[in-house]
Amino acid sequence: MPKVKTNRIKCPDGWELIEPNLCELDAKMREAESVPNDGKRKCEAFWPILKIAHQKSRYIFDLYYKRNELSRALYEFCLEQGYADRNLIAKWKKSGYESLCCLRCIQPRDHNFGTTCVCRALST
Q: Which string of b and e fits 28-46 if b means at least 16 CB within 10 Å?
């Protein structure tokens, strides 16, 4: 009889400590994605989704870099599974980008006249 492949992924030690918070944020993300966007501009419809993605990435960033409560294996596991944005965290580690909310804020092609995002201008 052939072996049955399972898609189970082994979680590193410490996963059970952060899993409830990440599951709660995933539930909020599903709720934000299902909200109808009638009467809203296209960019306004994405704001709640970007906000929750920022919260998830910031939560993992703070646990690993600020509080040192995550192991390297658990941190890499979270990045590989898509619980946090690797590129956004890389920007947060650079000086001047600590309060960056999303990567769209620093892409001048997404804004009028090649400027930066309104949220980035207000946070500085």
A: bbeebeeeeeeeeeeeebb
Say what the pTM is.
0.82
65 belongs to a structural domain: yes
Please give the tally of structural domains in the chain.
1
User: How many whole angstroms separate alpha carbon 25 and alpha carbon 52?
Assistant: 7
Maximum pairwise Cα distance, the chain: 64
The per-residue pLDDT of the chain, averaged, comes to: 85
Residue 74 lies in a domain: yes
Whether 122 is in a domain gets the answer no
Question: Residue 98, class by beta-carbon neighbours within 10 Å (0-12 exposed, 13-18 middle, 19+ buried)?
Answer: exposed
Q: Which amino acid, one-letter code, is at 104?
A: R
Report the distance separating Cα 90 and Cα 88, nearest Å: 5
Query: What residues contact residue 58 under an 8 Å CB cut-off, 6+ apart?
Result: 92
